[in-house]
């Protein structure tokens, strides 16, 4: 297991590479070219410059999150092959720079969805939260406007203002894309990119839909064990793998996180590990990583990863906003650094006790 930390790039992140370097055990970052638009071919020089910047700070790029898949590919538009070609060239450049893990998602219109970005907890920390009742009452446009104020001036991945400006057109684009079609389009995309992944040994790691059910009437397909097994069996190549995000699968209390990790043995390339606290089954908030602060047994989760031989990259995921930090919601330094330490502590204990 390699512990890493997500970093959005010096132009977008309040956290610096030097700070990340001082977190014990963290040697690599998960990053991206945050300004690229989905569908666009990444520029080789920009990848090289990013790599150089990270390496000069004494770190390495452990993986990319994300190379976003554009809507034409997701809806299966007539011109999708052109965008798949761009994606393949991007993967080629990443492979040439020795980058071997790429996280992406196949969610229609939005990336992950939260209804509050700064819910205050008793201890004064703030966390991101989701209430189904709030989604049922609001349209996406109004939701974006209400979230904007809590963004602390940062751009949230998947909720970029340019994208939100076209939200009506986007909904129109997906209106005939049911779950089966979306799944077929994903398979088409994966089959097309597997050869380049084989050539450069690139592990594609699909991120789950968060929350793990349909929002605003859009289809969602990466939500549970059955869907994941269907995906890895349909494109049965080790490079077609999973980003196992505990906080996304865990949104649905029907999902058994530990059992799902076991079922996916060998195909989890990237782990996002975090904890949730449920108020009701469809009202939850993002807790500290520590088991007792939320509803997940983090020891059992880490043990399942260890027992299934997980040797990919891991990162702490959304943290609380604590100690007065102002950062992108979920992506401050302090609470994620605490998370990284806690998860490494669990791992060390599991590893040592299993070798006794
Ligand atoms: C949320 C993240 C997601 C993830 C994308 C992957 O904080 O986990 O935005 O990066 O879904 O494409």
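^ Assign residues to that structure.
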């Amino acid at each position: 297991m390699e512990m890493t930390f997500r970093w959005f790039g010096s132009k977008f992140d309040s956290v610096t590479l030097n700070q990340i370097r001082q977190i014990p055990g963290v040697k690599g970052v998960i990053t991206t070219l945050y300004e690229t638009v989905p569908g666009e071919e990444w520029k080789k020089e920009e990848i090289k410059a990013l790599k150089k910047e990270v390496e000069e700070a004494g770190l390495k790029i452990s993986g990319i999150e994300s190379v976003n898949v554009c809507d034409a590919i997701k809806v299966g538009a007539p011109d999708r092959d052109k965008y798949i070609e761009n994606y393949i060239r991007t993967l080629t450049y990443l492979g040439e720079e020795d980058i071997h893990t790429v996280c992406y998602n196949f969610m229609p219109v939005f990336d992950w969805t939260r209804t509050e970005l700064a819910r205050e907890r008793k201890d004064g920390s703030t966390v991101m939260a989701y209430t189904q009742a709030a989604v049922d009452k609001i349209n996406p446009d109004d939701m974006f406007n209400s979230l904007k104020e809590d963004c602390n001036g940062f751009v949230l991945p998947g909720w970029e203002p340019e994208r939100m400006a076209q939200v009506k057109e986007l909904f129109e684009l997906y209106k005939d894309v049911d779950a089966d079609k979306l799944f077929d389009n994903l398979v088409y995309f994966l089959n097309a990119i597997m050869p380049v992944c084989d050539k450069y040994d690139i592990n594609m790691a699909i991120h789950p839909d968060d929350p793990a059910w349909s929002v605003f009437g859009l289809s969602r397909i990466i939500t549970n064990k059955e869907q994941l097994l269907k995906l890895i069996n349909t494109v049965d190549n080790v490079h077609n793998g999973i980003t196992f995000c505990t906080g996304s699968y865990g949104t649905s209390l029907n999902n058994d996180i530990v059992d799902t990790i076991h079922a996916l043995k060998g195909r989890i390339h990237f782990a996002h590990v975090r904890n949730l606290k449920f108020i009701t089954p469809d009202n939850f908030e993002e807790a500290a990583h520590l088991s007792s602060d939320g509803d997940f047994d983090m020891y059992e989760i880490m043990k399942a990863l260890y027992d299934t031989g997980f040797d990919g990259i891991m990162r702490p995921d959304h943290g609380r906003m604590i100690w007065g930090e102002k950062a992108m919601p979920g992506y401050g330094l302090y609470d994620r650094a605490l998370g990284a330490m806690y998860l490494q502590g669990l791992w060390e204990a599991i590893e040592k006790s299993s070798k006794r």
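The longest helix spans residues 179-200.
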